[in-house]
Amino acid sequence: MAVPLTGSDRLFLGELGTAGDYRLHIALAARLPGPAPAIDELRRLAADSAARAPVLTYRLARGRWAPDPAFDPAHHVVEYRVAPGRDVCAAVVDAVRDNRLRPEHPLWSLMAVHGYAEDEHVLCYRVHHAFQDGVGAARIAVRAVLLGRSVPAPEREVAVRAPVRARMRLLATGARLAAPSARLRPPPSTAGAAGTGARTFFLRLDVAAVRRIAAATGASVPQVGLAVLAGALRAWNPSHWRKAGRRGTTVSFPLNLNGRLRDGGLGNGATTMPVVLPCAEPAPRERLRRVMEQTSVERMAAYRRDRYPVRAPAAVFRLFRWLATRAFPGRLTVSVIGVSLPLDGCFAVPPTYDTGGGVVSMVHSGTTVVASCVFSAAIAHADRLPSLMEQALDELRREVAR
After folding, report:
1. How far apart are CA 196 and CA 203, in angstroms?
2. pTM, 2 dp
3. 325-361, pLDDT tens digit by residue?
4. Rounded distance, CA 148 to CA 118, Å?
């Protein structure tokens, strides 16, 4: 069955993000013990995964997602060897960059990254962001690839018109994210312009500390992560936040819509909710309380109910992409993906397209909380943020334990 592209799909396949553009690829990687699988074994895994999840056979065809009649799992496997001692997260980013997706095939691949250590390898599921969003990619990677479970075939409902309330909420969200209060505030740099491009950092947070904080406060893991990020941004440029009248940094917090649709893991089904990270608040526990207030189940449900327009001329989406980096420079997007994995060492690779701001993606499972950070090279001192997040987590843990 062919499925029309939604508005989000078109947006991510716009002029600046063609199907083969690695900067708009996302991935979920799992560190596994032992040597990497042989290429034939990897092909069998790709074929078995596609049999369990029909979405993996869908490709772009005349403005629609449709099953590829010539689907061949051999087109979707990559063996990527790196030098011994190479940082494992950096190796996965290299593998995503060096192996482009081909638009004549479904926009995904399985990559076995190995060589960095003798006793383990990485299995990485990589997709184009238009083919799947983070939740869809995690669903397929976990259920079909890692756990061997079936996922229904795509059968998406597509909204034709959005209510006036949804359109007004979209305009209000855009205005808040375009406001000066949504701009990242790095400390002053004496080195001049930092250049162009994107830099990626990975941080594994202390999962025991996160759980203790969540249990003591009634917060969720994503809420603790947002509060930790707020504390790090405060410590990044404390003099800015000490000034009277400062409140915080408004970030874009994506919410998945596809979970309630019969999407089979297909397409980019997300909306965005503005969240003010309370960077001006000096007390860590109060920062968490304010984050919890803004990310309540009721507020997120309201944004999910108001579906935005999904059918519009391609020119509209090209215009949006052209305006995005000009209207929202220095903005931050924060996403959190919760997956139930019987594995340790999982992490996400966010899009590395340079928007002039940053993206923080957190993956949490029963054993890990990993933050993947992509910042524009134009953002000074972004490399300090991972260590500042560790400090902010410890500060929050100590205050909650009092």
Report:
1. 23
2. 0.90
3. 677 778 999 998 766 565 677 899 999 888 789 999 9
4. 26
